[in-house]
Structures are given as structure tokens and as C-alpha cells.
Design a protein that fits this description.
By secondary structure, the protein is of the alpha+beta class. It folds into two domains: 163 residues, 2-Layer Sandwich (D-amino Acid Aminotransferase, Chain A, domain 1), CATH 3.30.470; 167 residues, D-amino Acid Aminotransferase, subunit A, domain 2 (D-amino Acid Aminotransferase, Chain A, domain 2, Alpha-Beta Barrel). Strands 1, 2, 3, 4, 5, 6, 7, 8 and 18 form a nine-stranded mixed beta sheet that branches. A hairpin with a 3-residue loop joins strand 15 and strand 16. The radius of gyration is 21 Å and the shape is globular. The two termini are 17 Å apart. Bound molecules: 2-OXO-4-methylpentanoic acid. The site of 2-OXO-4-methylpentanoic acid has 5 residues, from loops.
């Protein structure tokens, strides 16, 4: 499929952010966006890269009422030799369609997803920031735009991609965040939408997040929805716990997100000399293992969050500090290795990089 390129008038081109240390996360957007429409009976039509602008949508559009929506997150990095690298974008394409399947959005050919992103990034290459710890965050999404109030899968959808030059997801940068285990609200239940990247999962996490913030915590760590006992994930990250050089994470049980960074950690850790295990983690055992010093580090993984160390973990009334509130050696090593591959400083031994032409 060819993309129609709609030019951006010169006077509409935005100024780039000069001080890249001020980028933050998701505050600025590039000049262009990709839009492809899907119509029942026709399939994918009208692929275009056009000036970044608000959509004009019917207020009856299904997405506004029943949240038929999915999204992804991936990043582009500018290497010192000027090439632009995407990290494992095929995984995002695959997961996008898995999420879509769960909420009855139409599958998009992986080739179209990848080619669209590559063309958009290529046109916007000047927007890829270069400072340490920065990247161009890519946000593909699909929304249901059929204007009808009956609850049904939409006959008309938009696939679109917007992009934002970003720094660290957390304001503290690569520094420990404090996390509260949530034992009242739940994020997902077996058979629910927990493993789909759909907006509703994030909407339903907001209240718990606000309450945690009031208590001084950056994020909540979700427990399983049935027993409120087993560690699941932090909305923006999968979680890992290091028992010395043994790293443990929750299994993909259907209610947590199958993270691209999670998978990368599981593959990188063994070559760095660590052992990995995916197993159910009982929060009571975890707290006792932190208390006794068996758990030496905790960190989260995610595209936006990269590898984020955890400083404090609170469960009910107990607050435990990890790694003396510092960044642990396992966390640091994984961060350095992952970001080293993404930015071309370390060899890409798994073939994870895809260059943009
Ligand atoms: C990502 O890491 O790309 C995500 O989509 C998480 C989001 C909360 C920023």
C-alpha cells in the first residue's frame, strides 16, 4: 500500500525542543502523523501521512462511549553514525493485533504497521533527539469511529501513529521510584482485558494511582484480581526482583502485559551471567524476602520506563527499602546493556534492531 504524503505548510513546521534535558515524556509532538482507515467490506484504505492535527470526529463515535481502542509504544533512536534504529518493532506489530483481537478491532497487516511507522519516522528524522537517555517515542493506536450508540464492533476504524521526542518517563530520570502494592482495587481478572494494550486498563488504574500519589508513591503494583495475593505488574512496567544474581518475574498468565522490554530482559540476563525465572510471586513471601535481605533489587521494565529501579515498596502498613535506596548492580547492568544495544553502543547479538531507510 502506498502512503499519500500531504505536505506540511512551511509556516506550520514546529520548532524543535532546543534543550533536550527538558523533554519530559509525551509533551511535544512532531509535525506529521500517519492515518489509515479501515472500513467494513473494504478493508484498509486511504493511507496518508499528513500534518499533525486534531481529528474531527462524530460525538457518537464508538470509541467515546465503549472505549473500543488499542495502542502501542515503541521508540526510535539516533545512532552516532546518523542511522535511525527501531527496537523490535515486529513485537509491537504482533501485540497490536493481539490487543485488537480482544476488543474486536480489525487486524492490520504487520507489513503495513511497520512500513507506515518507518515512512513516518523517516520523514520526521530531524525530530529524533540525540541527548543521552532521549529517543523518539512512537505511539500507534486504533480507534472505533463508527457513529452509533449500539454496543457492537465498529464498522469504521482509524489506525494512526503520532510521535513525541522524549526523555525519561519518570521525572526522577534513572533513579529509584517508590511503589505501593495495591490491595483494594484490581487492574485485571482472568479472562479480562489485562493482557491487551487497551485504554480502559489505564483509565481504571487512575484512581488507585492518585491515591498512591497522595501517600507519596509514584506507581501502584497490582496484585492478581482473584486472590489479591500474587504480583502482576505496574501499569507502565512489568516487575522484576533480583535474589542476588537470580532474577524473578511474574509469568504471562493472561492478565498482565507481555512486555517487549520484559522479554528483552529475560533474554539478556542469561548472557550477563544471571539466571531468570518466571513464577508466581506471593506478595507475603516477597515482603518477607525483602525484609530478610534475600531480595537484593527490584526494577520495572517497559518501553517508556526502560529499566526503572525501585527504591521503596509499601504493602499495607509496611514500607521496605531496597538496595539502600540506590540503583543496584543487576539493574544498572541490564539498563546499560539494553540501552547500549538500542543506541548502537553495544553489538545487537539478537538481531533486534531494524533501521529506518
Ligand atoms: C509504554 O511503555 O510504551 C507504554 O505504553 C506505557 C505507557 C503507560 C506510557
Amino acid at each position: 500500500m502506498e502512503f499519500q504524503i500531504v505536505p506540511v505548510p512551511a509556516e506550520k513546521l514546529k520548532a524543535k525542543i532546543a534543550d533536550q534535558s527538558q523533554l519530559g515524556f509525551g509533551k511535544y509532538f512532531t509535525d506529521r502523523m500517519l492515518v489509515v482507515e479501515w472500513k467494513g467490506g473494504q478493508g484498509w484504505v486511504d493511507a496518508r501521512i499528513e500534518p499533525y492535527a486534531p481529528f474531527s470526529l462524530d460525538p457518537a463515535s464508538l470509541v467515546f462511549h465503549y472505549a473500543q481502542e488499542i495502542f502501542e509504544g515503541l521508540k526510535a533512536y539516533k545512532w552516532v553514525d546518523g542511522r535511525i534504529a527501531l527496537f523490535r518493532p515486529e513485537m509491537n506489530a504482533r501485540r497490536f493485533n493481539q490487543s485488537g483481537d480482544r476488543v474486536c478491532l480489525p487486524p492490520i497487516p504487520e507489513e503495513l504497521f511497520l512500513k507506515g511507522i518507518e515512512e513516518l519516522v523517516s520523514l520526521e528524522r530531524e525530530w529524533v533527539p540525540t541527548a543521552e537517555g532521549t529517543s523518539l517515542y512512537i505511539r500507534p493506536a486504533m480507534i472505533a469511529v463508527e457513529p452509533v450508540l449500539g454496543v457492537k464492533p465498529s464498522d469504521h476504524c482509524y489506525f494512526f501513529v503520532i510521535m513525541s521526542p522524549v526523555g525519561a518517563y519518570y521525572a526522577a530520570g534513572f533513579n529509584p521510584v517508590n511503589i505501593m502494592v495495591e490491595d483494594h482495587y484490581v487492574r485485571a481478572v482472568p479472562g479480562g482485558t489485562g493482557e491487551a494494550k487497551t485504554g480502559g486498563n489505564y483509565a481504571s488504574s487512575l484512581k488507585a494511582g492518585l491515591e498512591a500519589k497522595k501517600k507519596g508513591y509514584d506507581q501502584v503494583l497490582w496484585l492478581d484480581g482473584r486472590e489479591r495475593r500474587f504480583i502482576e505488574e505496574v501499569g507502565a512496567m512489568n516487575m522484576f526482583f533480583a535474589y542476588g544474581s537470580h532474577i524473578v518475574t511474574a509469568p504471562l498468565n493472561g492478565s498482565i502485559l507481555s512486555g517487549v522490554t520484559r522479554d528483552s530482559v529475560l533474554k539478556l540476563a542469561p548472557i550477563l551471567g544471571y539466571t531468570v525465572e518466571e513464577r508466581q510471586i506471593d506478595v507475603n513471601d516477597l515482603m518477607s524476602d525483602i525484609r530478610s535481605g534475600k531480595v537484593t533489587e527490584a526494577f520495572g521494565s517497559g518501553t517508556a520506563a526502560v529499566i526503572t529501579p525501585v527504591g521503596k515498596l509499601c504493602y499495607r502498613d509496611e514500607v521496605l527499602q531496597l538496595t539502600g535506596g540506590q540503583v543496584g548492580t543487576v539493574t544498572q547492568k541490564l539498563y546499560d546493556t539494553l540501552t547500549g544495544i538500542q543506541t548502537g553502543k553495544l553489538p545487537d547479538q539478537f538481531g533486534w534492531i531494524r533501521f529506518v531507510a
